Amino acid sequence: MTNVLVCGGAHADRRGRIAGHTVPGASNPGAWFSEAGGGGFNAARNLARLGHAVTLISPRGGDADGELVTAAAAQAGVIDRPFTFLDRATPSYTAILENDGNLVIALADMELYKQFTPRRAQMRAVRDAIAAADLLLCDANLPQETIVTLVGQARACGAMTAGIAISPAKVVRFRPALEQLDFLFMNEAEARALTGAEVAELSGWPGLLRGIGLAGGFVTRGGKALVGFDRSGIVIGTPPALDMIQDVTGAGDALAAGALFGLMNGSGLAEAMRQGIACAAITLQSPYAASEELCQENLKTALSRVTDIQAR
Questions:
Q1: Strand, coil or helix: 94
Q2: Are 216 and 229 in contact (CB under 8 A)?
Q3: pLDDT band with cut points at 50, 70 and 90 for residue 312
Q4: CB-based contacts of 194: which residues, under 8 Å, 6+ apart?
Q5: Residue 1 has what pLDDT?
Q6: What is the rounded average pLDDT of the residues 250-270?
Q7: Among 94, 96, 92, 102, which residue's Cα sits nearest to residue 26?
Q8: Per-residue pLDDT for 248 more than 90?
Q9: Rounded distance, CA 250 to CA 37, Å?
Q10: Shortest CA distance to 15 belongs to which of 87, 90, 95?
Q11: What pLDDT, in 10s, does the model give residues 172-223?
Q12: Where does the pLDDT of residue 243 fall: very low under 50, low under 70, confident under 90, or very high at 90 and above?
């Protein structure tokens, strides 16, 4: 069993879904749904459901939202090791979605993550968790200096290192750590923010990202073709058409978890991409950001529909 350490977002995730056609600047009928979320936490739960031993370290408040995260970690089999601040509020993400599940706008209240400082990253419990990990996965909710510290410690211990971009505004926090990352998972907007450049073709992203020091990564474009690369190659894949999409929230985190699951099990880049796409498809058809239906058996079924993967 592979040991995975996840350091990053684990918070309350609230999503309001508009019932009909979206009317900007007006009151829209709809419904609210709340659950535990966060890029790192979504990936952590996915990896745990796929059979890995996953430990989560993340700041949390002493409130009902914190209890929500604690319960979700236990339900998914994640080993939960939070920094708890009893007098602070747990971070939250509040999103408005269109009727088809696509994002209209979101508000992220992530102030508490600033308390995961480099000094906390050097605490004995954190250093021991890193030393025991085969993979360190961070997300960009953490401060830049903390990301650099954690990734540096993991590389010194010989662990695989990976990151989740979270947003165009936050992905730049990975810049000082790029040369020590094995993989970074991002969408095209985040890739543009990180490189300060644009590409004419999807296959142009690996060259740009390698040029700023990144050895491997995946660049997604929603339901369109995506590109993955490592030190030795490039692959482009097209997700299968889905009969129904429940919610896009967490799909990118699921792709990251599926790809890392494959890579840690010895799969090549193309097969890792297939597994990432399959995990994302399972998540897109679930109302939850980390699908309770994700498991190795269902992953095998979903893989049968992922056929368009090409090496470049």
A1: strand
A2: yes
A3: confident
A4: 165, 171, 172, 174, 175, 186, 209, 212
A5: 67
A6: 97
A7: 96
A8: no
A9: 8
A10: 95
A11: 999 999 999 999 999 999 999 999 999 999 999 999 999 999 999 999 998 8
A12: confident
Mean pLDDT of 55-82: 97
> What's the rounded mean pLDDT across residues 296-306?
95
How many whole angstroms separate alpha carbon 84 and alpha carbon 63?
Answer: 10
Q: What is the DSSP string of 128-184?
A: HHHHT-SEEEEETTS-HHHHHHHHHHHHHTT-EEEEE---TTTGGGGGGGGGG-SEE
Give the span between the Cα atoms of 166 and 249, in whole angstroms. 12
Q: Mapping DSSP to helix (H, G, I), strand (E, B) and coil, where does residue 116 land? A: coil
Beta carbons of 163 and 147 less than 8 angstroms apart? yes
Residues listed for the chain:
312
- Phi, psi (deg, nearest 5) at residue 98: -70, 170
Q: Which residues contact 141 (CB under 8 A, 6 or more apart)?
A: 8, 9, 38, 39, 40, 91, 110, 113, 166, 170
Alpha helices in the chain (DSSP H): 39-49, 64-76, 118-121, 124-131, 144-156, 188-195, 205-211, 251-264, 269-284, 296-303
User: What are the Cα distances from residue 6, in Å, to 3, 154, 160, 182, 236?
Assistant: 10, 12, 12, 15, 27
The pair of structure tokens assigned to 80 is 């939960």
Mean pLDDT of 224-244: 95
Q: Which positions ≥6 away from 228 have C-beta within 8 Å? A: 216, 217, 218, 219, 234, 235, 236, 237, 259, 269, 272, 273, 276
- Find the mean pLDDT for residues 276-283: 97
Residues 94-139 pLDDT 10s? 989 898 878 899 888 999 999 999 999 999 999 999 999 999 999 9
What are the angstrom distances between the C-alpha of 141 and each of 26, 94, 172, 207, 255?
Answer: 31, 15, 11, 26, 18
